[in-house]
């Protein structure tokens, strides 16, 4: 049995809307230290909203509930404060910033999130080189502009590069696997594992498909339908879902099956 | 965000707003008359022909109506009687840094000139109020035969060259403000680069307006003789004053056959300055003229660096950025006249408006009937940071030869909430995120600058972004 102070992330009774439309209708989620959790669901089920709300996207209204990181309420924090507290979001659609060089941006981000010391000198360079090698990112990447003209695969690798350099307490990965081929998924999974496995950090992987989960081995899998988590289980739940589909799962729940 | 407004309070409206007590030896009363013009010329001991040009220019200035385009409302608010047209701030021209009076040196210290000199300069001329107080040329430049003087000394020591070229690119009758400048000019730089000489390091000068209601009318003339090249850099900051100041410079460039002139400006006038500047170059056969022009600050800027492509195969490049904050109007752009065949031009104009500021691109591109196979490419990008701000584009193209190839692209963009959120999720405050977006937008300009200027400009824009979000 784990107790409250051992959880990295705790989401309690979270209800969220955008303008007048309710999207999340009461979410409970708990990620203990060192664990990787996955949320699976169809388009429009509320997965991306969950990720954005944890990061503090200003467009959403939290109507009820709370989000705690290491027991601390994130609600009043700006996105940049959450980032400095240890939250990281790998975006489904990373934004391009023309004219902002990747190398410069990485150094500034590491400095903001982990402190000036971490962004200085050879330690930073060594870590950067290692991470880029691990992700098969060429050196020339550093002088390009942030996400400007990147292919889909490059964008996703760049998100993981940032993840590896920022060393967050909690990594939230929003469909990082979408649009990647099998080699890309393997590379990205390697990056995620290197940040979480064997540490006290945690990760929340949001995905449509179980493919990435084969390479990451989540501790728990949650299924989201209509703004609610309708099922939770071990890694086998992902396989069950992949084999039978969301409609089948909904039917099973309607029949009274309990996947909690 | 409350953090933003605190930052604004701490920073204040203008970041370089210090000033030294005025310590002037000769100062004219406010206002302009033919007598003032003649007196200026007499104090400077000028040759008769210069006095006559000044007087003719003055008469033209009086008769010439205000421009009926641009920001006419702001222009009408200039009170020429409240401007002081001449101020001599130290005894003479310092031949070395130690000879420059201490309070003036302190001011320059804060602008970082001595360090800048060590790293970048091949020669310094620093305009303090109306006259140059400090001027040095590196020995290697002198050995190469390059003349680099303040304009007053240039007239004294090289009267023949000045007489030949002064007003040949921009006659006093060009516009009301070129007439005013010709009548009362003081200071500025005079540069002559002999045939085939390449000045490797950028040469630079700083200009400031320091005295209240001080008009600054510097006059710069650069002649690059055949096959020579030079990069001239001018940087400006000015302290804040409550009454309006007028800055009206004239810059003339002559690139003789095969010569290359690059003229870089980064200016940061305080937001009470009227900045009405005429800049024009003439490029002869296979010559190249580049204007790299950054306008940050001032109340109203009207400036359109121009190139006359007079010789076959000549090339013009105008890269400009403008930043308009609260109460500011940047009316900037470029002018290129293709007079000869096989001439080419590129214009890149980028503007940012914020807090109700207004940025306008005003461009004129002309191809004359006999100019065959000319190519021009014009790109204007505007970035608007809030609903109150404004951007306009006034492009004019007159193409009188059917073999010309012209391209024009314009874009207006806004900073997206998703962009800001993305950067904030990487630990950057809203102001920092905005600074990154804005500096990225200016990057095609910034990368053309000497390193120190690029760093300074990035810092300046980041400061400007603090407190910009409510």
Outline the structure in words.
The complex is a heterodimer of chains A (260) and B (470). Chain A has a domain of 173 residues: P-loop containing nucleotide triphosphate hydrolases (Rossmann fold, 3-Layer(aba) Sandwich), CATH 3.40.50.300. In chain A, the strands form three sheets. In chain A, strands 6-9-10-3-11-12 form a six-stranded mixed beta sheet, with helices on both faces. A four-stranded antiparallel beta sheet of chain A has the order 2-1-4-5, with helices on one face. A two-stranded antiparallel sheet of chain A has the order 7-8. In chain A, helix 6 links the parallel strand 9 and strand 10. In chain A, helix 5 runs parallel beside helix 6. Chain A is 38% helix and 29% strand. The radius of gyration of chain A is 18 Å and the shape is globular. Chain B is of the alpha/beta class and 470 residues long. Chain B has a domain of 54 residues. Chain B is 27% helix and 35% strand. Chain B contains 13 helices and 23 strands. In chain B, strands 5, 6, 8, 10, 11, 13, 15, 16, 18, 20 and 22 form an eleven-stranded mixed beta sheet that branches. In chain B, strands 4-3-7-9-12-14-17-19-21-23 form a ten-stranded mixed beta sheet. In chain B, strands 1-2 form a two-stranded antiparallel sheet. Chains A and B meet through helix 2, strand 6, strand 7, helix 3 and strand 8 of A and helix 11 and helix 12 of B.
- Beta percentage of chain B is 35-45%
Strand content of chain A: 25-35%
The parts of chain A where pLDDT drops under 50 for at least 5 residues are none
Main sheet record of chain A: 6 strands, mixed
């Amino acid at each position: 049995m784990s107790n409250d102070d051992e959880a990295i992330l705790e989401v309690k009774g979270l209800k969220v809307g955008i303008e007048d439309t309710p999207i999340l209708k009461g979410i409970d989620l708990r990620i203990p230290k060192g664990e990787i959790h996955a949320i699976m669901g169809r388009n429009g089920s509320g997965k991306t909203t969950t990720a954005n709300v944890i990061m503090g996207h200003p467009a959403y209204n939290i109507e009820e509930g709370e989000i705690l990181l290491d027991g601390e309420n994130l609600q009043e924090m700006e996105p940049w404060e959450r980032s400095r507290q240890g939250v990281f979001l790998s975006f489904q659609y990373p934004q391009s910033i023309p004219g902002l060089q990747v190398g410069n941006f990485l150094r500034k981000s590491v400095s903001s999130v982990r402190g000036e010391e971490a962004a200085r000198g050879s330690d930073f360079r060594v870590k950067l080189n290692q991470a880029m090698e691990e992700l098969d990112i060429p050196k020339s990447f550093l002088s390009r502009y942030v996400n400007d003209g990147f292919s889909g695969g490059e964008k996703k690798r760049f998100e993981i590069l940032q993840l590896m350099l920022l060393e967050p307490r909690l990594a939230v990965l929003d469909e990082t696997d979408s649009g990647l081929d099998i080699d890309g998924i393997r590379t990205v999974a390697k990056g995620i594992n290197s940040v979480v496995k064997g540490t006290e950090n945690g990760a929340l992987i949001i995905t449509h498909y179980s493919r990435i989960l084969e390479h990451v081995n989540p501790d728990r899998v949650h299924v989201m339908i209509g703004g609610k988590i309708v099922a939770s289980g071990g890694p086998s739940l992902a396989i069950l879902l992949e084999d039978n589909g969301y409609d089948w799962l909904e039917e099973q729940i309607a029949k009274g099956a309990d996947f909690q | 965000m409350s953090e933003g407004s605190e930052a604004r309070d701490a920073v204040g409206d203008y970041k370089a707003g210090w000033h030294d007590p005025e310590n002037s030896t000769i100062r004219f009363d406010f206002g302009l008359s033919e007598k003032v013009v003649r007196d200026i010329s007499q104090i400077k001991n000028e040759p008769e022909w210069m006095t006559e040009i000044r007087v003719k220019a003055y008469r033209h200035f009086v008769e010439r109506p205000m421009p009926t385009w641009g920001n006419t409302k702001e222009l009408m608010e200039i009170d020429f009687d409240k401007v002081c047209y001449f101020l001599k701030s130290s005894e003479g021209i310092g031949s070395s840094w130690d000879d420059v009076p201490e309070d003036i040196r302190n001011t320059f210290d804060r602008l970082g000139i001595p360090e800048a000199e060590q790293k970048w300069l091949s020669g310094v001329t620093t305009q303090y109020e109306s006259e140059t107080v400090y001027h040095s040329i590196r020995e290697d430049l002198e050995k190469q035969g390059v003349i680099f003087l303040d304009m007053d000394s240039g007239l004294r020591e090289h009267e023949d060259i000045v007489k030949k070229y002064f007003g040949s690119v921009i006659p006093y009758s060009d516009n009301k403000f070129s007439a005013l400048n010709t009548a009362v000019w003081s200071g500025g730089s005079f540069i002559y680069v002999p045939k085939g000489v390449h000045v490797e390091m950028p040469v630079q000068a700083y200009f400031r307006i320091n005295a209240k209601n001080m008009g600054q009318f510097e006059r710069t003339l650069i002649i690059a003789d055949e096959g020579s090249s030079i990069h001239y850099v001018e940087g400006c900051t000015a302290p804040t004053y409550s009454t309006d100041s007028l800055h009206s410079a004239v810059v003339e460039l002559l690139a003789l056959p095969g010569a290359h002139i690059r003229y870089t400006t980064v200016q940061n006038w305080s937001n009470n300055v009227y900045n009405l500047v005429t800049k024009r170059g003439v490029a002869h056969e296979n010559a190249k003229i580049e204007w790299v022009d950054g306008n940050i600050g001032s109340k109203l800027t009207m400036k359109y660096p121009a190139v006359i492509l007079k010789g076959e195969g000549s090339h013009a490049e105008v890269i400009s950025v403008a930043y308009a904050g609260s109460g500011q109007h940047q009316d900037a752009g470029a002018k290129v006249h293709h007079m000869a065949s096989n001439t080419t031009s590129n214009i890149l104009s980028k503007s940012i408006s914020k807090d109700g500021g207004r940025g306008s691109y005003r461009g004129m591109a002309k191809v004359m009937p006999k100019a065959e196979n000319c190519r021009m490419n014009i790109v204007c990008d505007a970035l608007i940071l809030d609903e109150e701000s404004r951007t306009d584009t006034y492009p004019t193209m007159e193409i009188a030869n059917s073999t010309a190839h012209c391209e024009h692209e314009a874009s207006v963009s806004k900073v997206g909430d998703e962009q800001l959120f993305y950067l904030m999720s990487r630990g950057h405050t809203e102001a920092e995120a905005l600074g990154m977006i804005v500096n990225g937008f200016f990057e095609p300009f910034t990368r053309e600058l000497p390193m120190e200027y690029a760093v300074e400009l990035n810092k300046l824009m980041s400061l400007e972004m603090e407190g910009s979000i409510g």
